[in-house]
Description:
The chain is mainly β. A hairpin with a 7-residue loop joins β7 (about 130-135) and β8 (about 140). The strands form 2 sheets. The chain has a 9-stranded mixed barrel. It has a two-stranded antiparallel ribbon with strand order 7-8. It contains 3 helices and 11 strands. The protein has helices spanning about 1-10, 35-45, 60-65, and strands spanning about 15-20, 70-75, 80-85, 90-95, 110-115, 120-125, 130-135, 140, 150-155, 160-170, 180-190. The model has no long low-confidence stretch (mean pLDDT about 90). The chain is globular and about 50 Å long.
Amino acid sequence: AGDVGSAYQRLGIFRVWTLDRTSRPSFSDSPPLTDSARQGWEQYDSYDDPALQCVRLGMPRVMTVTGPHPIAFVDRGAVILLQGEYFDVEREIHMTEDVIPASAPLSPLGYSIGRWQGDTLIVNTSRVNYPLFDISGLAGIPQSTAVAFEERFTLSEDKTQLHYDISISDPEMFTETVLAEDYAVWKWRPEIEIMPYQCEVD
């Protein structure tokens, strides 16, 4: 047991993590939506979900709707690779930049920069072009390209859990910044590996 313990002390965040639980954020009971966002949400039909057609997901859904599929962090020096088994996601987190470049192209996953605060990896992401916001209790809210996220991945004291907070700012869809604190908790299970995701259209 001591050898295993020392191994994950050294690995820190750079392991495969499996979702243990998610919690419904308090703001989902009365979301501070703009009029256009509320109208789009009311008109949303879950049958229009692009995931049903195996269209790759974007932020924040790649983090907030992983289900049983694990995630993993890989240390590549100036870049941390965040892999997600669900839809074979690969996010690059740039660790040597302080500001997201305005020239970064819009994309479903956006552009992410990261920094360490103790055992917490803080990730800021913008330049996202993905049409749907999705978090527990709020599926189908439209999302604009002005959206920005701050994620916090925090190791537990015993280094066996990873706690996840996410705050969301989208001035076109939310009237204020919203925070889902301790939204997800991932556990380290040494036997779990990231496997290829084989999406099939029903």
